[in-house]
Design a protein that fits this description.
The chain has 283 residues and is of the alpha/beta class. It has 2 domains: 3-165, HUPs (Rossmann fold); 179-281, GMP Synthetase, Chain A, domain 3, CATH 3.30.300. The protein is 44% helix and 12% strand. It has helices at 3-15, 29-42, 59-72, 87-91, 96-114, 126-129, 135-142, 148-151, 156-165, 191-210, 241-245, 248-251, 278-281, and strands spanning 21-24, 47-50, 75-77, 120-121, 218-226, 229-236, 259-262. The strands form 2 sheets. The chain has a 4-stranded parallel β-sheet with strand order 3-2-1-4. Strands 5-6-7 form a 3-stranded mixed β-sheet. The two termini are 37 Å apart.
Length: 283
């Protein structure tokens, strides 16, 4: 038995005793693989996927999530969340994710209760628990949601390997954090900023493909006012940085900002956390 086999067996052992379960399904590979594991273990009729609908979720992600849930034969709920009603979320300090996850679980827990489901689970994996600053994970746990992947010891690589083994279409899907993660800390989050980032990323990805420069990972980071100018920073795969820098006509599709720059270091997941002071980042 491989390490992956052992961890998947541990995951099955965690899920099997549950009468039913509600999976917080963002549309990403972690929660998608957990959703598939639950359906395989319990049967589709005992599993509900819940994808929160808000301005922080790109429309394309919501549509893909619905298609994936349908492919598994599980019920798919799309409740609305209202993170923007929470001052701590809008303020966008280092603990923004805590307010987001609080809102998420505060919406999903009553939904689960109405459906007669006791367990709400998230796609947090074992690597996430070791990743340093993740206030959202703590907030979800404090409200009773739990993380089967992490409890079973499944890492990100394990999750992708399991998804490939099961033939899941999202096995190699790039990381897709919420749109609010693109807004620099202490720049207030608003529906307008979220929509601007979503539109910019969609336009830039399309322009890069049309120019023959396909990319896997792409982010448009809203840095707020830098030296008095509303600034966006674009991150793409490191291998695509030079090609993008050499094509100003492609970069020009990112509109709505006074200045658009390309990060020479390329895409880095969680790069906004680099701007946080160490005592905050690692507490």
């Amino acid at each position: 038995m491989t390490d992956l086999d052992g961890r998947l067996a541990a995951l099955t052992a965690l899920l099997a005793p549950l009468p039913d379960v509600l999976v917080a399904f963002s549309g990403g590979v972690d929660s998608g693989t957990l959703l598939a594991a639950a359906a395989r273990t319990l049967g589709p009729g005992r599993v509900v996927a819940a994808t929160a609908v808000s301005p922080s979720l790109p429309a394309a992600e919501r549509a893909a999530a619905a298609d994936f849930a349908a492919s598994l034969g599980v019920r798919h709920e799309q409740p609305r969340t209202d993170e923007l009603s929470r001052p701590g979320y809008v303020a966008n300090a280092g603990d923004r994710c805590a307010f987001c996850k609080t809102e998420l679980v505060d919406v999903l827990a009553p939904l689960a209760a109405r459906l007669g489901i006791a367990d709400v689970v998230t796609g947090t994996n074992a690597d996430d628990l070791r990743a340093g600053f993740r206030p959202g994970i703590r907030a979800a746990a404090e409200r009773g949601a739990w993380a089967p992947l992490a409890r079973a010891g499944l890492t990100k690589d394990d999750v992708r390997a399991a998804a490939r083994r099961w033939g899941l279409p999202l096995a190699d899907k790039p990381a897709a954090a919420c749109l609010a993660s693109r807004i620099a800390y202490r720049v207030p989050v608003s529906a307008e900023r979220l929509a601007r980032v979503e539109a910019a990323e969609s336009a830039l990805r399309g322009a890069l493909v049309a120019a023959g420069v396909p990319v896997r990972d792409l982010r448009v980071r809203d840095l707020g006012a830098v030296a008095g100018r509303d600034t966006a920073r674009v991150e793409v795969d490191a291998a695509a940085v030079a090609a993008l820098t050499d094509r100003p006509e492609v970069l020009a599709v990112v509109i709505g900002f006074d200045r658009v720059e390309v990060d020479p270091r390329g895409f880095r997941s969680g790069s906004m956390n680099e701007l946080l002071p160490d005592p905050v980042r690692y507490r």
